[in-house]
């Protein structure tokens, strides 16, 4: 069996018992090598298959192949394994090659949820997730979704907001959102969640310092009603107080 | 201090160590009475304040008041405490009454993420959450968001999809989505996640049996590329296999 495990943002503290158990029960662990440090204690003595950053397809294929040989395999993702992560790729590979394999997906806390908790409560009303990486989605489609999300006044969680290879994506996205919501909309920035250097910053579209944003950052743009109180950002749900 | 705790979908298995710890460390627990059964062992001997289903505002106010008296209070929500739940209401109350209180939000696994894991991997591309409850959001706004989300071909997670008081909301929502995506779009239905009677059903807009859907159900409508393979529903991410 292949278990795809979401380990949460990056510490044991936010990894569920189900995820922990799945890693402990596996005979073979497949993971991006950087993540191994987060569960060193429970994988001692197990077979470990790890590759670097861009090896997702290779890691998934190896996990599938070893599981097809009858071994208990845990394929580990950070965050939730089904949100822009490894679980879907496993099904894509199985379908493309008409392979039969029992797959179990263990959910995990994704960056938007962990980030929202650090900021206050920005996700109290309808919200969406958009990845600004155009490695696999054409930029035109990303722009179309930004327009739709801003028009519907969703709270918008931006994943992969900015990288060295895509330094202008965040600015372009915020320009589109500004057209509909205005520049004083509250924006929360969360960096290195659950890791050293964890940081939550509350700002607005107009005052945001882009240099703060890199690939380990999640950006949450509020809706028109999102407010700041003290150190917290929150979106009212509509209660009549 | 007031800690707002997301306990996940409904079993210890999906409650994080951070959530568990926050409940254990509190002197006073405030929770909807039905949820107390899920953490009975760790609240023995603690002061418990609980109210029925519609008592959210009252529960939050009580939690705030007791915390202002200097006690360590854990206010417990199911799922994630910041997604259509209690954390935002706490900040609304603090802001409305200009109260100063240290608040910590502990994230939890929300129904869409736990439900997606049971279905396969439907959330692998851009997605949104829309609550179909018009108790606090006008139905016109909900319809506007449904149009926007369908137009942007987001995967759409519907919360509060149908209840006795709102039997037609799901059908109305699916009619709007059908206009843009067609009736053969894959739909996943998850019921009673992590509880007795847990069920995951894969169907389509046209073949969905509305009677299966009630307030304990989350409905996930795929995007145009969402596929079914075996018992699983998944949305391709765009990998070139």
TrEMBL record, chains A, B:
Keywords: Cobalamin biosynthesis, Methyltransferase, S-adenosyl-L-methionine, Transferase
SUPFAM superfamilies in alphabetical order: Tetrapyrrole methylase
Pathway(s): Cofactor biosynthesis; adenosylcobalamin biosynthesis
Tetrapyrrole methylase domain segment(s): 1-208
Pfam families: TP_methylase (PF00590)
GO molecular function ontology, one term from the record: methyltransferase activity
An example Gene Ontology biological process: cobalamin biosynthetic process
PANTHER family per the UniProt record, alphabetical: COBALT-FACTOR III C(17)-METHYLTRANSFERASE-RELATED (PTHR47036)
Entry-linked NCBIfam families: cobJ_cbiH
Protein name: Precorrin-3B C(17)-methyltransferase
Organism listed in the record: Suicoccus acidiformans
Gene name linked to the record: cobJ
